[in-house]
Specification:
Helices cover about 80% and strands about 0% of the residues. It has about 425 residues and is mostly helical. The chain folds into 2 domains: about 200 residues, MFS general substrate transporter like domains (Growth Hormone, Chain: A); about 190 residues, MFS general substrate transporter like domains (Growth Hormone, Chain: A, Up-down Bundle). Helix 5 packs antiparallel against helix 6. The longest helix is centred in the C-terminal third of the chain and has 33 residues.
């Protein structure tokens, strides 16, 4: 009997346990990914109604608009240390519980400060989830990175548009509190498989994660010392800045050009929906092409063509302009996939994920604000779009660095 056959004969339970364990992790990742935007997109369509009921003005509405990227940035930078201390699986469980508790309790309050604080709690959980999912894919599905990246990024997209789609109809039927609070059920459902995973590992999550950084690179393993990390952060950050600027300002750009408010909202939905194309195609391209920088160049061309149309002839072919601009953020799923393709270990993936998303979302916070300030100062859209052109230039430079076929752990400065 061969050695392989002997091993299969001796350890049939272990093999079944491996398959079962990976299936449970798959379910946990899918449910978690579906949760990662629900606290944002379930709230924004209802802000007018909530503001009338709770009693706050446009300034607080602006704070709610900046809160997601701010919390994603803060917890993006904190999560790698949490993962080293407690383990990826335990941190993922904590993230889903934070999200569920925050969403559920904010739907019950009638005070602006409490609504902000509990929203921050939910968004903090999502910020942690943003960071830990890529290294969890690395740990459990290192042989299926492209496939799993496609699955979880697609789930993030579904979790982005679905709450926004049903928020108003549910609020009309049952009230805004029910419309907000029901998404806590998804977060709590996502926590359940993580409970089973943590119990099944019996503490090995902490041992595995804390041990990985102590490789031959030792204490040099800090993401900020690697050009790979800076390239990734630049590409991710500028992509996020453009994306959130478009989410915020596309309706006003089109309505000032003569479109209706309903049409402007539809174009935002179209911009978001185009993300599905990128979510399906970009991870596979990154896995199959050693250096996917040509994809970054193509994204820059899409951006430039779409921006030119929106600036110079917004109502000539608005659907085409939005489709082109919507293809530009293909560098978002590219970044999430490259987090795993440019690292050797789950610990390296966690470090790169935290650095990329923490710094990237911090930059994204200021995008919509600067875009609006430039519009107010100049009374037009030329300088705001010049800001976005600068972001595209950074994407081209940072993408060149990020896409080079090398590993984070081999590129410490």
């Amino acid at each position: 009997m061969s050695v392989q056959a002997t091993e299969r004969h001796r350890h049939p339970i272990d093999r079944r346990a491996l398959v079962t364990g990976r299936l449970m992790v798959l379910v946990a990742i899918v449910l978690s990914a579906l949760t990662l935007r629900t606290a944002v997109t379930s709230l924004t369509p209802l802000l007018d109604e909530i503001s009338r009921d709770v009693g706050f003005g446009s300034t607080i509405v602006g704070v709610f608009g900046m809160l997601p990227t701010a919390m994603f940035a803060v917890f993006g930078l904190l999560t790698p240390r949490l993962a080293l201390t407690f383990g990826l699986e335990r941190v993922a469980l904590g993230a889903m519980l934070m999200t569920g508790i925050g969403i559920a309790t904010r739907s019950m309050v009638s005070d602006t400060a409490a609504l902000l604080a509990l929203s921050a709690l939910a968004l903090g959980g999502m910020g942690i989830g943003n960071v830990v999912i890529p290294p969890l894919v690395k740990r459990y599905f290192s042989d299926r990175v492209a496939m799993m990246s496609t699955i979880y990024i697609t789930c993030v997209q579904v979790g982005t548009f679905l709450p926004a789609l049903v928020a108003v109809p549910v609020a009309d039927a049952y009230g805004w509190r029910v419309s907000l609070g029901l998404w806590s059920l998804l977060a709590f459902a996502a926590a359940l498989p993580w409970v089973g995973i943590v119990i099944s590992r019996r503490g090995r999550d902490r041992v595995d994660t804390s041990a990985e950084p102590h490789t031959e690179h030792g204490e040099r393993g800090r993401a900020w010392r690697s050009p790979v990390a800076w390239g990734m952060a630049g590409m991710f950050g500028m992509t996020s800045l453009i994306t959130y600027s478009m989410f915020t300002w596309v309706p006003k750009i089109l309505t000032e050009a003569g479109a209706s408010a309903a049409f402007g909202g539809a174009m935002v939905a179209l911009f978001s929906a185009v993300g599905f194309i990128a979510a399906i195609g970009a991870p596979t391209l990154c896995a199959r092409i050693a250096n996917p920088y040509p994809v970054v160049v193509a994204c820059a061309v899409f951006y430039l063509a779409g921006f030119a149309g929106l600036l110079f002839a917004p109502m000539a072919a608005p659907v085409l302009w939005i489709l082109l601009v919507g293809l530009g953020p293909s560098t978002f799923p590219m970044s999430l996939t490259l987090i795993n393709l440019r690292t050797r270990t789950a610990a390296g993936s966690a470090a790169l994920s935290g650095f990329t998303q923490g710094l990237g979302y911090a930059v994204a916070c200021i995008g919509p604000l600067l875009f609006g300030i430039l519009h107010d100062l100049t009374g037009g859209w030329t300088w705001p779009f010049a800001l976005l052109l600068g972001a595209v230039a950074v994407i081209l430079v940072a993408g060149y660095v990020a896409c080079k076929p090398r590993f984070l752990e081999d590129s410490w400065l």
